[in-house]
Amino acid sequence: MKIIYNKILPFGRRYYAINLFGILFAKGPCDKVMLNHERIHTAQMKELGYIFFYIIYILEWLVRLFQKRNSFRAYRSISFEQEAYDNENNLSYLSHRHKYNFLDYWRRKC
Hints:
By secondary structure, this protein is mostly helical. The protein has helices at about 30-50, 50-70, 70-75, 80-85, 95, 100-110; strands at about 1-5, 15-20, 25.
């Protein structure tokens, strides 16, 4: 995974890194857990196709924003994020992850 360190992306103080099309933009050094989190997102993107991933991500965030009435809680409720956060500490997760596993998280919310 290519990492670009910068002071601009991601926007906002709450966010430290953002994965755009498999390239990680970070405000500083990244530990193994953060890199694993972002690699999980890259696997999700590859499964859906990058553009379709972002379309679904934004649509789900909008639905969660309507439900939660808080942008950060909406972000944490996105199925892609839940899979990544739940498994970021398991550094071998990607070696045994089932394709489209984020759908299990999405189904729990419906």
